[in-house]
Queue: 2 jobs
Job 1
Amino acid sequence: MAALPPYASTGQKVWHYSYLVICAAIFFFLIAPILIIIPLSFNAENFFTFTPEMLALDPEGYSTKHYRDFFTNPDWQVPLWNSLKIAPVATFLSVALGTLAAIGLSQPHVPFRRAIMAILISPMIVPLIISAAGMYFFYSRIGLQGTYWGVVLAHAALGIPFVIITVTATLVGFDRSLTRAAANLGAGPVRTFFKVQMPLILPGVVSGGLFAFITSFDEVVVVLFVGSAGQKTLPWQMFTGLREQISPTILAAATVLISISVVLLVTLEVLRRRSERLRGMSPG
Amino acid sequence: MNITRLLTASTALVATATIASAESHVEMANEMTIVSWGGAYQESQLKAYVEPYQEMHPEVSITWDESSAEAVAKLRAQNEAGNVTWDLVDATAADAMRLCDEGLAMEIDPDEDLAPAPDGTPASEDFGEEMLVSDCFIPQIAYSYTFGYRNDVAEWDGKEPTSVCDVFDTETFPGQRSLEKRPHNNLEWALICDGVPYEEVYDVLETEEGQDRAFAKLDTIKDETIWWSSGADTPQLLADGEVVFGSTYNGRLFSLIVEQDQPVNMMWDTQSYDLDGWIIPEGLDEASLARVKDFLYFATDTQRLADQAKYISYGPARKSSAPLVGEHAELGIDMAPHMPTNPENSKGAFVQNYEWWADYRDDLDAKFQAWLAQ
Amino acid sequence: MTDSATTPPSQPMAVLPGGEVTEDGPMLAADGRPLKHSLNRALRREKLRAFLLVSPLLIFILVAFVAPIAEMLFRSVENQIVSETLPRTVVALREDQNLPEEAPGEPVYEALYTDLFIAAEYKSHTRLGSRLNYEQTGLSSLFRGTGRDVGRFDTDIYTDQFIEAEPALEDPVAWSNWMADEEIRAALPQTADVWDAWVKLTVEANEDDPLEEDVEDFVYAALYRDLANGAAPAGFPDVDVSGFETVSIKALFEESDEDWVDPQIWQVIETYSPAYTDGYFLNSIDMMNGPDGDAQMRPDDERIYLKLFWRTMWMSLAITFSCIVLGYPIAYLLSTLPLRSANVLMILVLLPFWTSLLVRTSAWKVLLQQQGVINDTLVWLGIVSDANRLTLINNATGTMIAMTHILLPFMILPLYSVMKTIPPSYMRAAKSMGANDWTAFWRVFFPLSIPGIGAGSILAFILSIGYYITPEIVGGTSGVFISNRIAYHISSSLNWGLAAALGSILLALVLTLYWLYDRIVGIDNVKLGG
């Protein structure tokens, strides 16, 4: 599909190019909302609207005031820091516990494997509003509601299925003779894990961790219930913003986050290529 | 039950209570968590009374929690868990009534807990019965649900709507409308525009036929209506030209028209009054309660309520505050004409019956949602 | 793939097929134990090790997630509030014969008087009113209003007559002595019960000393009933109550609010008096407990939940389907491109995934509304006229578009990971044997990619069935899901029982799907990229 063979018929050519057009259209659908956000975040007005001045490309219609607001207003800075304090810890918990459990689950003999798997995946399949309400009542009772650790634990629970799924997937293709070889050569289980297993399942762990991180970083329903003023996260601030006073600062915040994601994704890709080179695998 | 044990316990309890009350004054907590709505409204509270109070009492630190929209649910869960973390909650009158019903809010005595007017009129009279709608409710402001309309709609041929019933007139005033996604106000407006006099609205709405009549009236504009659920929706829809009419809080329209300078006009006809105020959660410890009461006494006095009107166009709940309403803090315009309580604006105002809604809310909400889903 | 993880791989030690028993006896391991035991022990150890690795997370999830949800869902049947607030009334109602034709007899009202008096002191009567108002409109104000009146009921005629007949009956200390006497208590059961309640109330709610307070009227009213029944315990003042002036408590209640003699009201209280109720579940499938206690459908104008469940299901299906239609070509393209270009394009897939859901939804609002970007562009291109702009938002279309966008990456990632495992040589082989492009794709590639479709579909479907923020913002009235109503009942109407019942049904649906999925595809086959 990548390139058309020179002997392709006219029909094949037509089909090939229309297929590419369809794909381009779908990609456009995927990023259209994001492309909309960026110009609107430079809106000089306080609404999510393309003003006539903006459409006429009049510099008057544009302004960076929403970015100034985002970077100077404590209403935005405090939630940003809260998010940055909560997400990594929740991710760490998810990844540590999740990886351990995924390794356990990949052992040949695990009693009640299906049932355990279902329980561990449950945070992903239970509708969020039910989880949020349930955790809210329960955490209130045990004094975790409205605390930092309450939010961290709730978010860790939500992130775990992603870690389990990605790490299990890498372990499915894992060659067990490698650990046996390591054991045979005298390495203890811990050493085997860190020296042999870990480097090989690392891609799964990293991608699960990223999913867990984004789950926490973009989560609004649960934090709205389990958190209180002290744990107000960025999505929470956006949610109140959308509900109480629409301001394109939300879009400025989103643009900043998108830029960070792009940098992150590109870095990951570069790192991946580098590691592939190091491991001597062909780039495909 | 072991009565003897209970009696002994009670004696001990009474004894400690006597000792406690014998002490001259109670220590006041220096931390206070205030729950409010966020946005411009919270800002007005901050400027008008929280900052002045903190100037007087620099030792007090205040945490804001912008959870008023979920206040009833959260407070109920906190109370169930026996772990109330809020000291003072801003709530609408209807929510306050429900919190009071649920035993989640403390009953107050206006004359004892609130400051009298400068001329000595006791608080209960200064606020008046129409403001003190629940035993737990300490009113701050009167706001209203009213309509804004675009003043640049070509299809209207220069005609301007003057009455709430023009919202139902899609012939003369074509275009989309936005109404709130709940039965309150909408059913009342529908009946009023169907010819029911103000004072009979709730009697009619109690009957099956009356409800059908209200829904039938709403049916006439159902296809042209966008239903909003958050206060920011209607201003955005009006600014986009997505709707030509929209109901929302009058303060939102003020900011849209005066502060943002959008081509929108305000229609005060049949504005529906609502109240917003404080409640004190049940179950505060003594020190927190003492601090909250001290703050409230200050924050709801005549001058403070009048000051709030400098920052937002909501009417102070005290009669004695009205003459003190001055100019907008930044724009320097006279605020009185923008108050829902201004005599010129309140001529055709409609007053919601909270007690009635407390009964009919569940039933009518189910019917309203079923009607929406049809 | 599932198989390799669930079935044990071959053991490192060679074991004779068929069994370990040879002619010379059991086969032995190196340490001299029977090999079978040794293997079993190793197996047990391995099981234990696996379990130990899993257990920290299992415990964590059970405590931090499963327990809260179980507790939440339990609220859907819980209904102790009626019998806790009105304990005596509930008992009296059970013995009453008048219902359902007419209002209950005097004993029920007497019990209600005591219960409501106490409840009003604890301020729990309004909470009960709110609870029962879910079942019958008007009960909220009925309880609130009468709760205010009940302290002022004219029942002091019993108090006055007793004190006149025997002044010692005014003394709370004497009362507490009598009430400590087991024989008197046994002879005056109603009085003893009500006295205990009064003492508890005085201490707990009012924080007073019962030995210094005037005994409340309702205690004397109970005493009158006990004595009128012919009780004459030794050690208690002998008062002849036959000539006492009496008052009908029922009439007092009727005076406070005539709804109290409406049999329908009582029917509701009786129906909801057990500690557990099916009422919330009935409500969540548009049914209710009818006047005669049988389950029946609600009136037409109140039916909504079945419709919402149905809508949630079919719209989630439609969203899943559009995810397949849009996701498949993209995944196919990515899987056939060289890895480097595929990874760059993958960033386009992941970018929306990493962008806040709230922001993406708001962006769709800007794009889709009538004065929005898409309509403006179409009008500018002359495809639609200015007067007939398309309605793309605040309806089911809006929800479909925005949700498809949000869930598309969840479809593309598993599809891509499955397609990457299909060797391109299969297609080439098919073509070399004479298949044209379409046949080769349809007969060879597509069947092999079905597991990916399965994985993506289940993920998209399960996630979409529980969404509520996006439908809330772009769904208008025809595009909202059942989760929106659950959220409403949790945060606005406070009808947590109904929210829990709706949630239980939704969860049951999702779990059934999950189970089916696990049966058909296997949960191990879900891959999120990588």
Job 2
Amino acid sequence: MTKQIVFAFALLITLGAFSFTINRIVRFFRFTRPAFPVKDFGKRINVMLTVAFGQTKIFRRPVIGLFHAFVFWGFCVIIFGSIEMVIDGLSGTERALKFLGPVYNIILASGDIFALLVAISIIIFLSRRLFFHIKRFEGIEMKKITHIDANIALSIILLLMVSLLAMNTGYIEYKSLTGESSVGLFPVSSVIAGFIRNGKPENYRLMYEASWWTHILLIFLFANILPYSKHFHVFMSVPNVFLSRLDPLGKLPNMDNITREVKLMLDSSTAFTTSSTGAPSERFGVKDAEDASWKNYFDSLACTQCGRCTAVCPANITGKKLSPRKVMMDLRARMKEKGPLMVKNGRDFNDNKSLLRDYISEEELWACTTCNACARECPININHPTFIIDMRRYLVLEEASAPGEIKALFNNIENNGAPWQYSAEDRLLWAKDLEINIK
Amino acid sequence: MEIRKIEVPVMADLFARGEKPEYLFWVGCAGAFDDRYKKVVRAFAKILTHLNVSYAVLGKEETCNGDPARRAGNEMLYQMQALQVIETFRMYDVKKIITICPHCFNVFKNEYPDLGGKYEVINYLQFLNRNIEAGKLKIDRASLKNISITYHDPCYLGRANEIYDEPRSILKNLTGNLVEMHRNKSFALCCGAGGAQMFKEAEKGNKEVFIERTEDALKTDAKVIATACPFCMTMLTDGLKYKNREQEIRNLDIAELIAQSIDL
């Protein structure tokens, strides 16, 4: 009974702290702008199954991708055991879901095997970060704290897997030494048990109990660290993939408020009848965190800073300042900074700072070629280019700010109907003296 | 063999005669004004004539469809251009559009529908491949003598619209020696000109994107770099010049390669 009370108390603290944190983050969504409507559920489920559960985009880097897939699939299986642990902890049962029979055995056996695979993968990930110089993990946006963040999360996962294997090992040895019947199959832990077979049953019982508590308390701790970490993607990535933008990568979203203005301009008869009496005029484009859409903000929370986007960005590869990963990290950081101020003082609050310029420079924005390599690469379907263009839209539409050559481009299109200074009269010159061989 | 003069059909003239072509051939600004790219348009027009396609161009009535303005953030200018173009299309009852420029293709196909302009938009590579597969466009592979060709995927055909197979299928009809760069298809590196970069100097960095991409192409030892976009052509041709390789390696558009191989 004491165990149950302690457990219930720990769970209560966990859930309390977790909902506090999540609420802090989620409440900022109300400052964001609408994006696309979420429909086409069939398509979305399909994308989620392939990209998230099938890890298809992770496999674009096949070797390291496989290790990530181990971790992801491992989590999917092991979470079943974690749910059982919560039930056991609250109700004082042992292995409460054993009534599932063969299915139970399969799940526990896969969890046991995956625990080892995940542990191996995490050791590889940690060594890559600690001992190897991986270019993708460098960059102006990668501060010391971001590396510490990554290493803490990886270490906790490693401990989770070690404690899980220790728990399983203790369990089967204790059961077999005392002659009690055990449930579940543990292929890996049985092998480990074979190596250390020389203790008293009580020691194995202690090992089982201690690992059980270590494992579940680490999960509680981890769950509460995640929302503050880049590893928030553990929660956010699957929903983010489900909420993917489904348009072709080449398509930019239309600015309907501009369409209204342009139509008013072109059609003089409506100029006075449909004057701007409707909604208050909204800022064109994105200047600050609250101008981002809910999807942009979601993207930024789901981003795990893996840097696959930046590693394929032509601007970044050739030494320009732009890094798509930084754009996402900046949005998250800016919302974290401005969100609480807007909660206190309203959406219009101005702290004399903005995402644009204080976080993301014009130089970065103008370096984008809109090639969509970043969006194509992102394992969880974050879309960086539309957000970059939205910031360009703010610069051009609200501030008339653009590089000189781009202003000349606008002038040429406006005056000559072409990006260069040529007259429409010359548009057919290419067709002059055109001949064909007839055979 | 005889040589015949081609009069490129213009939409206004056809309409004046009460005729309506099946396709509008959208030439694009690069096709109209870039001296190098004009040759690509000429090659494609020859192929259209060779195939007896019912088409017309807008000629003097064509105007920028707004793509570079949009990518540079000027949504206002983009929409003004777009609504103007949509009005022209409406006037001529345009239903099907063939584009050569991938940027124009993308805007018509994906973005004009939001403004009410809905058409069947087809890129010239899809069109050419369709005609080759249907046996209408017969290509003599021997003419290119198995010359090694590498293909550079334009971002706005590739990643933007997932057109990877048609260009490769066409090129395999032209040569038995199609070689891939190590970054190809959805992994392809941009030439550096997209997103209105074509019209400005690059930001400060340690290298130009077009040089990085040209090096990818040079590593394949191909004798021809095949492109399918006016901006990619400018960039990669510049890259070859920068590397002093423009004498031995040629940068040609797929339409030019076809026109050459069937000796139009």
